[in-house]
Amino acid sequence: MIEVVAKLGRGPVFLAGEMLECVITFTNPLSAASTSASSEMLAWASAQIHCQFHASENRVALPPSDGSKHDVQAENETVFVPNRGERGQCILSTPPKILFCDLRLDPGESKSYSYCETLPIDGPPSFRGQSVKYVYKLTIGCQRVNSPIKLLRVPFRVLVLHGLKDYQCPQDEAVAPSNPFLEEEEGLKKDSRLADLATDLLMAATSRRSLHLYNISSSRGKVGTFCIFKTVYKIGEDVIGTFNFSGDIPCLQFSVSLQTEESIQEEFQRRRGQPVSFSTHARHQEACLHTAQSSFSLPIPLSSTPGFTTNIVSLKWRLHFEFVTSGESAGTCLVRGSQPEAVTWTGVEQIEVDTFSWDLPIKVLPTNPILASYVSQFSSTNSITI
């Protein structure tokens, strides 16, 4: 028996273009003092990163795929297929890397190997939508002699920041300051520069603030104004907006929903003109009769996917507003009580209302992958027993 443990040292979230590093440890758990202790042998082990794509048959019409691949593995099969048995199609993969051949482990002995690979910068982000899914995995394959291959899959999340590809190799890289007292591998230095560059690009894109004012009007007149200071955000930020209900039409209630719009490209739609899919990530609702001003704050979950577009699907973010306005004047919305000693104002039992909605597109970008790792559903450590 051999225990295989794979650990992602920095966490399970990465930016496309970053270096993924995983330490894989092979251990013979039996103690040397055990009567049944004996050396264990592995013929080989290999590792590879791949992105698996799965589409809903009811929503997406994909071209026929090559059905010549088999998921059934023979007893002595030595071909390493990382996505064997997985649903969907493998749309992206890195070259496989051999970790070792003919490994012998004595009782209580363990050996560790480091796997490093740069994530393709032109791949899609990790996404689990209603129509399609993009899932990234690092798969480690191990095999004993004359035994089937055992696969250890390590799922992780990939964020895509557009613009990194053009700035991946800065012109002043050769004259960048460095610490002569630290010996740092070139790959890690490049990866650190890429993360710093991504942070700078995100900060520059999301820190710009300018006043955006929108008039809220129905078919009967003006309800008020809406104010927001920016329309570009990172996941993990809060979307903050304010209302000023100074119009002629009284607003009884409003709600604001933070939503994503998942649409399939026209050539891949199962039915022509099929509706898009909406998902609500946060919502604020408030009764606002005789309220002059109000505000809301909606957090963008760190676990959500920033906006992106591929040849099959497009994901966009928006604020969806719904307003309930009175069909009468503000003065008739309240009824004065008949008590002689005190004045009591009570709401009417019935009132005619009008409703209307409005959508405001916003842009949502990735964030620092280390921050997103704190709320990731994936574990940094995965194991299997062979």
Automatic annotation (TrEMBL):
One of its GO terms (cellular component) is plasma membrane. One of its GO terms (molecular function) is guanyl-nucleotide exchange factor activity. It holds the Pfam family Rgp1. InterPro entries: Rgp1. GO terms for biological process: negative regulation of protein catabolic process; retrograde transport, endosome to Golgi. This is RGP1 homolog, RAB6A GEF complex partner 1. It comes from Anas platyrhynchos platyrhynchos.
